[in-house]
């Protein structure tokens, strides 16, 4: 069962989300952060959250600024906005009486949940799925536009069938992120999940995240999975692993 929710972003526009609610006993609550421009209904987001709900963990997944059903302009956002709005989503759930103990993030969202956990006192466990060690890794998606953006301030950006606008402040913001420090000072349990055959964000990123992390830390290899977890049962398998691993922290 999914409940449609809306809450105010840190920059003003209203964000749209879905809470996948367990049908039986609730073991705990979490928030999911989607990839770069993917949205709450992407395969990784929807399948992982639905499976976690089936395992008794209720999950909020939401569209970031200007994506899916959310208001605003994607071009006005940044990595820092994504981090802040993830923390705002946790605050929203906590205010609803659904105390969030778990953060899960896919790809760019995996980096975001590591950073956002620092602003979320109730969160005890963080799981990253196919996340980049340096959020600026997303530049590979728009590297041909960087020179134009730096000179003109913005440029049209077509990705995954979406026509977006990429602005200079996004590039400057993502380049300034020091995720290494955020990982080292996380002070929460961290699960790093990655596919050794991920051709979008290489497995080396998982190694760097894991090496920077302090215990309790865990690594699970998602053999056979692609970056977007679109194959049969790939996302569901990842969710089952997250469910078992996170149990002590719920």
TrEMBL record:
InterPro entries: AB_hydrolase_fold, FrsA_esterase, Hydrolase_4. The keyword Hydrolase applies. Transmembrane segments: none annotated. It comes from the Bacteria. Keywords: Hydrolase. Gene3D superfamilies: alpha/beta hydrolase (3.40.50.1820). The keyword Chaperone does not apply. Residues 29-136 form the Serine aminopeptidase S33 domain. PANTHER family: DIENELACTONE HYDROLASE DOMAIN-CONTAINING PROTEIN-RELATED, POLYKETIDE TRANSFERASE AF380. Belongs to the AB hydrolase superfamily. This is Lysophospholipase. It comes from Mycobacterium deserti.
